[in-house]
Task: structure prediction
Amino acid sequence: MADNVFFEENGYFAWAFAAPLENGKWEAFMFFERKADHAKEFAPSIKHRIVAEFDSRDVAMSEAGSWAIERMQRDETKLRGGGFVNNG
Result:
């Protein structure tokens, strides 16, 4: 299975990831970049973490992908210059 899943929507690129937690559950997070920024030397990105625990990697990846697509469609990635956002 892939380490990440790539999405392209509404002028954005997104990568969804899942990571195991010590308690056996999984967490999900994603990175966003603007497609237009890829013409530059450096492309700003932003990381979002879903504040939830999932029973499996597949469920975490699915939730991360759905969350990312929804944010890209609404232009709500909070991507302004890079950084980290811990949100739920």
About this structure: The helical segments are 57-73.
